Give the backbone structure.
Amino acid sequence: MSTGFEIAVPDLSAERLGNTDTPGVWAFDSGTAGPTLLITALIHGNEICGAWALKELLAAGLRPKKGQLVLAFCNLAAFDTLDVAAHDAARFVDEDMNRVWSSAKLDQPVTQERRRALELRKWVAAADWLLDIHSMHEPSPPLMMTGLLKRNVELAKRLGVPQHVIMDAGHKDGTRMRDFAQFGDPQSQALALLIECGYHGDPSSVDTARNVVAHFLLESGIVDADDLPGHWMLAQKGPQTVLQVTAPVVAMSESLTFSEPYQGMECIAHAGTQIGQDNDKPIVTPYDNCVLVMPSLRQLKVGVTVMRFAHELPADPERQ
Ligand SMILES: [Zn+2]
């Protein structure tokens, strides 16, 4: 297992200016009717694969043929503190920027992240399609996090990448951008996906970010395949599996430990298998064939999600 940080930190001195009245936000309007796409990177300051993808899209001069394309470098203040030797510390400045997306929190802009989220809010509110690009604390296959709404699961299946699609309800400690306002509204048509591209420092996370961005842009219809950098689209590796998260494992104490050095996507055959302990109480799998999603103790604090339990859904849940 490599925990080395093998990606160069991108120079964002030009990109951070943006071409709008919001620093770090670039908007390109085709002038023709069509959806508004928002692609976001750096919601967490140490997750730089998305920043590389957006930087390269800007360098390639990609413009939409219809609708509007908006690219946003989100938590630049946290990114500015990034030291790859201690990259976890650059996740945020004051609080996790992917837990602040509710009116209750945004109405109290008491942290750097809430103030930045308020600047970004109008772009989020105006988007019809959102792709939010993240990476992970530990080495893991890429995961597409769809939330629970069927329309987003369907979009993930149309993209066809990555292999693992995860339906999850988000976090107890606050709302993610991808669940904010129209994106969490069952009556809306707005589409939102969050891609976890693999380990923060793994060069393959940049390949995954480019590949998913390319599929997302193409599926929206605002660009043609010829418009995309040729090497961005990767061959699909095998069929997709859709996993539904049934419960998060939320830390009750800072003494929580796992029984094994889990990396994620392990399938535990038997219900009741102990996979860790917290406050001297065993943590056990709730059902047979339970899949462990994104186990990590790197941000361990009381109330933080350290793992999710999931089970595989049939290939076409519509028919069930
Ligand atoms: Zn993240």
The pocket of zinc ion is lined by residues 43-44, 47, 134 (CB under 6 Å). The chain has two domains: 15-227, 244-313.
